[in-house]
Write a structure and sequence with these properties.
The protein is of the alpha/beta class. The chain has helices at residues 13-21, 33-42, 47-50, 55-62, 82-102, 118-132, 154-163, 176-182, 190-197, 202-216, 219-222, 231-235, 241-247, 250-253, 259-266, 277-287, 309-312, 318-333; strands at 4-10, 67-72, 107-112, 136-140, 167-170, 228-230, 267-269. Helix 2 crosses helix 9 (190-197).
């Protein structure tokens, strides 16, 4: 069975160094120094991210992965000046294009976009799709405190809909004020607080909230063919959809449909390496195999938790396994 994974990351040392030159992102403001130091040590720049020919291929062979859709991780900081941000995003995309061209049967890619300049981001998305045949774009977090339901970002999503390519979400560190209020405490360690605020819970809630805000903004009524990819099984929101529909109704929102309808029609979901049998079965039951795409979140999930055998040994039909393993990705990305 062919395996395509869609949340598999790559980075470039120069962009990491440039981010450090301009300081921490705006989301890091108002955080205690010990927390900021923990975050700085968390940024991963080792061989697993930068190496293509040995480390990555070895992982792909062990996990029976035929194609990775690469995405740039360690995104360009929102503290980097706008002109420099545009240059760095183009550099990241040029590097990914070189990799894809070198191994066209093993890799495709998502564009990374200079969100500080929505018009330039739209142009860069078009360049990457038309010139490089990228699958879409990957976006992270908020931008200088703004969620992407802010009208200034609409041209980016309008361009994605025009090009008929999806936007993939990736978590980023929540705003420092949110972390301080919700996740950090003197009653437990700084390390626990950091994990609580990020991969343990915080950034999943942040991205799930972000997706829901976009729906509430009416973007899918304006751009009904626009598609998003939400990792980590939809960042928890699918498990609350019945409650959300019960309380937030179209007569209040002014939307054409229920909020859950947009999740069913405009969002694809990936496990992002969370290989939980209960969550997997729930998502297939609620959304169907046609809305799930395989992803191992390379290299952030420890290898002992990454296993394509999880899908192969599931109770799904062969047709459902094929959809999740490669069919949905091939259809959505036109691979």
């Amino acid at each position: 069975m062919k395996i395509i994974t869609v949340e598999e990351h790559f980075t470039d040392p120069e962009i990491v160094e440039t981010n450090a030159k301009y300081g921490e992102s705006s989301g890091m403001k108002n955080l205690p120094e010990k927390i900021r130091n923990s975050y700085n040590s968390m940024r991963f720049t080792g061989n697993s991210l930068t190496d293509i020919d040995e480390v990555r291929f070895d992982f792909m062979a062990k996990q029976k992965v035929d194609v990775q859709v690469l995405s740039y991780t360690n995104p360009v900081s929102d503290m980097v000046p706008q002109d420099e941000a545009v240059r760095l995003c183009k550099k990241a995309n040029d590097i990914l294009s070189t990799v894809v061209n070198r191994y066209p049967k093993r890799f495709s890619a998502f564009a990374t976009l200079p969100m500080a300049e929505p018009k330039e981001a739209s142009k860069e998305l078009e360049r990457c799709v038309k010139d490089f045949h990228f699958c879409g774009a990957l976006i992270s977090g908020t931008w200088q405190g703004k969620f992407y339901d802010d009208p200034i970002f609409f041209p980016i999503f309008e361009k994605a809909a025009e090009l008929n390519v999806p936007i993939s979400w990736h978590p980023e560190f929540p705003d420092g004020r949110i972390q301080n209020y919700y996740y950090l405490s003197e009653s437990y360690s700084a390390l626990t607080g950091m994990q609580f605020a990020t991969a343990g819970l915080g950034w999943h809630l942040d991205v799930g909230l972000h997706m829901t805000r976009l729906i509430l903004s009416g973007i899918f009524d304006k751009l009904p063919n626009l598609q998003f990819i939400s990792g980590h099984w939809g960042e928890g929101i699918p498990f609350m959809l019945d409650r959300i529909d019960q309380i937030i109704k179209p007569k209040t929102t002014g939307l054409k449909k229920k909020i859950s309808d947009y999740f069913h029609e405009n969002v694809y979901f990936t496990p992002s390496g969370i290989l939980s049998k209960n969550m997997f079965e729930y998502m297939v039951k609620i959304f169907g195999a046609s809305r799930i795409i395989w992803a191992l979140d390379y290299p952030y999930i420890p290898f002992e938790y990454c296993s394509t055998d999880f899908l192969m040994n599931s109770d799904l039909t062969e047709e459902e396994k094929n959809l999740i393993a490669h069919g949905n990705a091939e259809r959505l990305f036109k691979l």
